[in-house]
Amino acid sequence: MSQVMSRMIENQRRNGLRRPSAPALATSGQLPTPIYVQLVTLFRRRIETGEWKIGHQIPSLDELAAELGVARATVRHAIGFLESEGLIGRYRGRGTFVLSTPKSEIWHDIPTDWSASVDQTSDIKMEWLECRAARQLPTPSHPGGKLAPAYQFMRRLHRRNGIPYLIGTTYVERSLFDRVGKKGFNDAPFRVLQRVVDDQIGRAEQTIIVGTADLEIANHLDVPINSPIVILTRSVFDKDGVLIYESTGHHRGDLVRVRMKLR
């Protein structure tokens, strides 16, 4: 159970309110989700649901710290994220007011076709973790192709508003990487592929599954071990059936969604 949730439940018990159903208890091996991340999610939800209305003043830092049983500095840190997102404004001598509602309760829509993958917005900040010649050839997540002689290995962490939501590992056919360069892959990968080798692409597939975060993924995404994550695998083959792009993305389960039109 998160520290914020535990304190809220305790406050409700002291005030004689009915205790809500408690989340599953974390095991001793789990890593706690940072409190500021929990607060950002909580405060965004209050704006989304209208509990904090546009144009209205929200409680002070001291009031929120007392309500949730956390440090004032932690509340200030979380409020800073909302301010950078344009959801609230702080005015000296007046207080803090709601300016707008979140554009989406879920921060990232996973594309379900090629066009959406190419048109992905670039409001995401990316941190390079690794970029080197692959020490071993990738295993395609989608069968039916063949491997190139060499690949470049890339590993990156993606954030929105300072909160990590995706860590991705990618293999790019080496001659293709040499043409684009590391800097070129700061852009959305499928946009790079369409711009550079669109006429050579023969087949592209992706698979979406739900899994759980191991220790390494949990550390990078700031979530407890065994938290739900969305795993997206992608394979792109050229017209000769050679794998030119292979990626695996581990997304925080509480910050992504998949939407598809059924009819």
Q: How many helices? A: 8
Instruction: State mean pLDDT (0 to 100 scale).
Output: 85
How much of the sequence lies in strands comes to 25-35%
Low-confidence stretches: 11-31
Q: In one word, what is the shape? A: elongated
Q: Identify the CATH architecture of the largest domain.
A: 3-Layer(aba) Sandwich
**Whole-number count of domains:** 2
What structural class results from the helix and strand content?
alpha+beta
| CATH class placement of the largest domain | Alpha Beta
Rg result: 22 Å
Biggest sheet layout? 6 strands, antiparallel
What share of residues is helical?
Answer: 25-40%
Task: Give a quick summary of the entry.
The chain has 2 domains: 3-98, Winged helix-like DNA-binding domain superfamily/Winged helix DNA-binding domain (Arc Repressor Mutant, subunit A, Orthogonal Bundle); 108-257, Chorismate lyase (3-Layer(aba) Sandwich). Helices cover 30% and strands 29% of the residues. The chain is built from 8 helices and 10 strands.
Task: Present the secondary structure layout.
Layout: H1 3-14, H2 35-48, H3 61-68, H4 72-84, E1 88-91, E2 95-98, E3 108-109, H5 114-118, E4 125-133, E5 151-160, E6 163-173, H6 174-184, H7 189-197, E7 201-212, H8 215-221, E8 228-238, E9 243-252, E10 256-257
Parallel strand pairs: 3-10
Antiparallel strand pairs: 1-2, 4-5, 5-6, 6-9, 7-8, 8-9
Helix pairs in contact: 2-4, 3-4
